[in-house]
Amino acid sequence: MATFVDRVVLHVTAGKGGHGVASVRREKFKPLGGPDGGNGGHGGDVVVAVDPQETTLLDYHHTPHRRAENGRPGGGDERNGGDGADLVLPVPEGTVVKDARGRVVADLVGPDARIVLARGGRGGLGNKALASPRRKAPGFALLGEPGESLDVVLELKSLADVALVGFPSAGKSSLVSVLSAAKPKIADYPFTTLVPNLGVVTAGSERFTVADVPGLIPGASEGKGLGLEFLRHVERCSVLVHVVDCATLEPGRDPLTDLDVIEAELAAYVPDDTLGGRPLSERTRVVVLNKADVPEARELAEMVRPMLEERGLEVHVVSAVAHQGLKELTFALARHVATARAEVEAAAAAAPPPRVVLRPQAVDDSGFRVRCETTSDGEVFRVVGERPTRWVRQTDFSNDEAVGYLADRLNRLGVEEALLAAGAVAGSTVLVGPEDDAVVFDWEPTLSSGAELLGSPRGTDVRLEESGRKSRAEKREEFHARKDAQTAARDELAAERRSGHWSSARDE
């Protein structure tokens, strides 16, 4: 069973936005008090944040599917739905986030480093928010938007100043155990170290970290053995220490050959360009001839030491078991680490500050475009844009009024004019949204005139129309007009009777 995982594929989904509500206020003596539907809550985000207590990605190896909380729907009486809680995923410091194509999204270095991987969907508006002086009684509400969903790769790359490299069983774990307080597993068989081990070393006023990682074999840069798992953890190290076993009895191996093999693997490995990209072969290198407590190994180390120094390498003969040469090695590593840190600080100070570029939206930018495409089913017109896509997702197509509201919005945005300019006619197939999740319409142009003949405008209710209260003068004028009309009608009837146009039974 795995106890340490440094690379996982994570499937994250942000929360959905809550739906808005279409509701009408009902009170005593006021059965139609107007719309009072509340808005839906926003969905929760998926956030990746550095946690100092985390050391591995093991939890995400077992449960790679993570989902944030959905927003809650709104309610009547203008009650808005609650927002969904954000899902915070803790990761160790040094975690690199990549997208499905392998591009680096974030390098989480620092105790407060965090990034929002997927944003939650926005909540839909209720009919209270959709009401306006022209639309006093909306009988619909907007749906909540779905949250973002994506796959990312999390890679843990250790934050160490010094990395110990070498063949398996070269004594790297033993060296870390005597230089620091770390207690890695030590045994007399190859690949004892299966996970990186970090130790903190103090030399005078300098403190630095040393990484003991799995051993290398020929072909490690191509993935043989534990090579890739190893090399990933030395990309951030500024000093590489070659730990050479001078007491090995394997045929074909000697200190010079071992060094050449490891150097070839370091040169073949290509580090990530977005994380610095400096080849491993260009890092500061120190050679440690280990196991000098064995007499034959001591003689071999003293023999090859001049040859290595002729190559320009700094050489230390040590024995992790007998604690020989460790003090000199510790202070030498501290010196190299201090130099590397000073170079990094100088480069950061000399680098120009980032240039802020503002790209305002163009005045004539409508926010969408219409693209004519030829498919197996014939010619179609695709409307691509953030706003049209969002509006379509928020529309409840089972509500005719909501569909009409969408048509009005698209018309005001200029979609119909753009479709006509692109050559669309009545009955043309129109797709709104991305290629993998588009909504298909059989387009019918909207009548631009004559709508007043079709009855009340969309979103109105004559029962909610407010009529002003008549003044006393208006009531008096209306009363006198009614009396005058009655008097005129009686006079007209009397004149007709006298002229003999008609008679009543009493006259006979």
Automatic annotation (TrEMBL):
Keywords per UniProt: Cytoplasm, GTP-binding, Hydrolase, Magnesium, Metal-binding, Nucleotide-binding
Binding site for Mg(2+): 173, 193
Stored CDD domains: Obg
Keyword Hydrolase in record: yes
InterPro entries hit by this protein: G_OBG (IPR031167), GTP-bd (IPR006073), GTP-bd_Obg/CgtA (IPR014100), GTP-bd_prot_GTP1/OBG_C_sf (IPR036346), GTP1-OBG_CS (IPR006074), GTP1_OBG_dom (IPR006169), GTP1_OBG_dom_sf (IPR036726), OBG_GTPase (IPR045086)
UniProt-annotated binding residues for GTP: 166-173, 191-195, 212-215, 290-293, 319-321
Ligase recorded as keyword: no
Record region (Disordered): 60-88, 451-508
Localization of this protein: Cytoplasm
Top-level EC class: hydrolase
Ranges of compositional bias, category Basic and acidic residues: 60-81, 460-508
Cofactor: Mg(2+)
Record-level GO cellular component terms: cytoplasm
Classification via SUPFAM superfamilies: Obg GTP-binding protein C-terminal domain, Obg GTP-binding protein N-terminal domain, P-loop containing nucleoside triphosphate hydrolases
EC number: 3.6.5.-
Residue ranges of every copy of the OBG-type G domain listed in the record: 160-338
Domain Obg: 2-159
Protein role: An essential GTPase which binds GTP, GDP and possibly (p)ppGpp with moderate affinity, with high nucleotide exchange rates and a fairly low GTP hydrolysis rate. Plays a role in control of the cell cycle, stress response, ribosome biogenesis and in those bacteria that undergo differentiation, in morphogenesis control.
Oligomer and partners: Monomer.
HAMAP family per record: GTPase_Obg
This protein's name: GTPase Obg
Organism: Phycicoccus flavus
Primary gene name: obgE
